[in-house]
Amino acid sequence: MPRTLWSGSLSFGLVNVPVRLTSAARDLDLHFRQLHEKDGAAIEQRRHCSKEGKEVEWEEVGRGYELDDGEQIVLTDEELASVQPRKTRTISVEAFVDLDEVDPIYFDHPWFLTPSGESEGTLRAYGLLVDVMEATDRAALGRFVMRTKEYLVLVRPRDGLLALTTLRFHDEVRPTDEIAPGGRKPAKGKIEGAVAVIESLSTEWEPERYTDCYRERLEQVIEAKKKGKRIKAPEQVDEPAPAPDLMAALQETLDRMGSGKQERKGAAGTGDGLKALSREELYERAQAEDVPGRSKMSKDELIAALDG
Amino acid sequence: MPRSIWNGTISVGLAHVPIKLYSATESKTVSFHEVHLKDGARLEHKRICSKEDKEVPYKEVVKGFEVAADEFVVLEKDEVAAAAGARGKVIEIEEFVPDDEIDPVFYEKTYYVGCRDDGEAYRVFHEALKQTERVGIGRFTFHNREYLAAVRALDDVLALHTMRFHDEIVRGKELDVDTPGKGAAKKEVEMASQLVDSLHREFDPTDYEDTYREAVLKLIERKAKGEEVELEEEEPEEETSDLMAALQASLKGS
């Protein structure tokens, strides 16, 4: 069970549901420590007063804010906490909105809200809210305070539970009018060509098929280094130049995809040919032939499935 | 014109779109710097070697990965770069998926995509993505790290989202949540739906200001005038004991 980061209640109208907040995203990144090259000892970050040159304990740290005239205002954490709005332990629902009106660009961090406690009343009120929002494709907008900051949040059903996401405020999303999309309205034929390419490369969204190759390669680099091997960065692939004739490039892409499919079918018939391929290449073929369970298959299993 | 943070090419098959990326979001949280309460002087973070207890210049700092307790493997910069791969300048779109199939929980950070040439290919893909209601999925390398990325049409521009991987997302079934003995009564569902309807409105992000940010700025103002700041605390609300009664009372009130 993930850690509870906040607990309080979700209130809509006069209904209050005690809830707990847990993160819906986990950090799987590999984290590095800073070390002193000379002796391999860990580096510690310590706060020093720029005036006294001496180390400063956490209790002596204040928050400085510089006014326009250069004057500095210092606040303590307690003073900063005093601006929390009154109902600090409640997520109060201000409105319900259609979920598809909220562009994902506003979504910040994902969380789950789970019922707090096992009382029948709590569980029923929680379940009721999930059901009603699911049935209407609506989500609740509200505000709450976590640690010392107030957030605008969207509460919506996900996986049969209430998911909460903190939202960015409208002025934290930049306007698009200064971004140059460039060009005139393109010719119809070119759009049709691009639509055809998109359609032939279309598939279902299956998130399990995408793994963090960076994480995997970093693990390999660490493993190799542990054994004393020295790994060099690969040569960078050249940035391709745009095709002088977009229409011809789209057409050729389509042609190659068509013939690519036939080649795949041909090679898939011989097990020997398959053995020469990498797992990634095998996976691509398994994808083209829609082999079920392919994402979890080893190289040999993929060969067996494609050869069958 | 905002400053671009990345230059490269989005490739779909043999069609290449030279692009620039811009941050689409910026935090407006009031930021403070750390100061020493005693004298108001700024604090500096110093790197101290835990063995020598002395300050360490930046050029003597290396990155270590802990493979066992207190056993570190040190990686050079180019070794970390090796993990980033060879496609630092190219975002190859591998496939397209229907945009309504991707739960927004996958989207992490958003960038706007601008073009670097006459914009023909850019406009063509923007229009084609809009018409097909699809999102392009590819890999994007930024600051020596590779991300999964989604490219979609957003208003008149293309947007790129870096994405979380499936194993970085917590599923509902991983959480141990009790279900109620019996489901909600029909009457309760009806009343709750009415309540949702009565609070329903169109989503307009400009209706919601960051009141916390405003409150912090006001607090700073008061402090600047030399006013005292009172501290207070608040208790949590009680849970609803009678769901039906609470729903009824809410509907009357709304």
How would you describe what is shown here?
The complex is a heterodimer of chains A (308) and B (254). Chain A is of the alpha+beta class and 308 residues long. Chain A has a domain at 6-25 and 83-172: Ku70, Chain: A, Domain 2 (Beta Barrel), CATH 2.40.290.10. Chain A is built from eight helices and eleven strands. In chain A, the strands form two sheets. Chain A has a seven-stranded mixed beta barrel. A two-stranded antiparallel ribbon of chain A has the order 5-6. In chain A, a hairpin with a 5-residue loop joins strand 5 and strand 6. In chain A, helix 7 (279-288) packs parallel to helix 8. Chain A is extended, with a radius of gyration of 28 Å. Residues 262-272 of chain A have low confidence and may be disordered. Chain B is an alpha+beta fold and 254 residues long. Among the domains of chain B are: 6-28 and 83-168, Ku70, Chain: A, Domain 2 (Beta Barrel), CATH 2.40.290.10; 182-200 and 241-254, no CATH class. Chain B has helices at residues 77-84, 120-132, 186-198, 211-224, 243-253; strands at 6-12, 15-23, 33-36, 43-49, 61-68, 71-75, 90-98, 107-115, 134-142, 145-154, 157-163. In chain B, the strands form two sheets. Chain B has a seven-stranded mixed beta barrel. In chain B, a hairpin with a 2-residue loop joins strand 5 (61-68) and strand 6. In chain B, helix 3 (186-198) packs parallel to helix 5 (243-253). Chain B is extended, with a radius of gyration of 26 Å. Chain B starts with 5 loop residues before the first strand and ends with a helix. At the A-B interface, strand 1, strand 2, strand 3, strand 4 and strand 5 of A face strand 1, strand 2, strand 3, strand 4 and strand 5 of B. Strand 4 (43-49) of chain A pairs antiparallel with strand 4 of chain B.
